[in-house]
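Technical annex B. To support the medicinal chemistry partners, we prepared a structural model of the target in complex with PTJ, based solely on the information shown next.
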Amino acid sequence: MTAPTIPRSHPRYRSLMVRSDLAEKMAEGLVVPEGLMAHGRGEAFDYLLGEKTTPEAAKAERAAAAHLLLARHPVLSVNGNVAALAAAEVASLSKSLPRLTVEVNLFHRTPDRARRVADALRQAGVPTVLGEHPTARLRGLASDRAWVDAHGILRADVVVVPLEDGDRAEALVRAGKFVISVDLNPLSRTSQKAQLPIVDELTRALRHIDLGILRMRRWEPSRISTVAQSVEAPEVLSSALRRIRVRLDRLAAPEPRRGSPRRAG
Ligand code: PTJ
């Protein structure tokens, strides 16, 4: 099947290109069909949030950068969608923070998919990728997401889990990890369970975290710690929901009739 030509002038050019790329990567076996559904859900929330990083998400991304800088064993967990959408951003982040371990973790795990995800990351420039041949299991999880590397997620103190499912986020918290999620849905169980939920689109979030790391990496730990402590999870989630509500209220307000006085605000 050949991909359709998408004119650059199309108002949704970027979104259509991303979809076409994901569809191709599904045909190659990197992304699972369920990943396309997950992407559609993410897009819907991005629409509701205005398709840009909100000030609250930017603050959470700065805090995430601070947590990663302070962590002893920071790990970034990568699934099929993350590798397909953001391999370059993952590579850039691992360059900015060489201590960051990148680990493949799949819900729909097969040895072939684990290898494809690891290959995509290596091709993008990630020097070392764990999780292809997992060596341990996370307690209290029945799914294949429980498979982890003993030198990666199992010993991590801080774990970034983009596009995660709620069960594993919960299991990671139970295992004593500090969990940073990236999920456009503020209502998802993952966002609700993470100690630091980032409600933003994946590539935007990873770029902002990267910039935060570059900006703060020579700071005193106490100053970095102040940034890390500056964000409360419940406030991140309620501010995202308030933003959606205010935006919808504004958009749903009836157009003023010609000749009628304009509404204030
Ligand atoms: O590659 P695998 O086998 O590990 O499977 C990956 C998927 C994504 C299929 C699996 O983790 C899954 O089913 O995820 P969920 O439970 O659908 O959750 C994905 C969440 O990510 C949803 O809440 C979406 O709103 C959100 N999401 C999707 N795309 C983006 C996103 N959030 C931020 N940026 C995106 N680009």
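Notes passed to the chemistry partners:
The chain is about 50% helix and 10% strand.
The first helix runs from residue 13 to 28.
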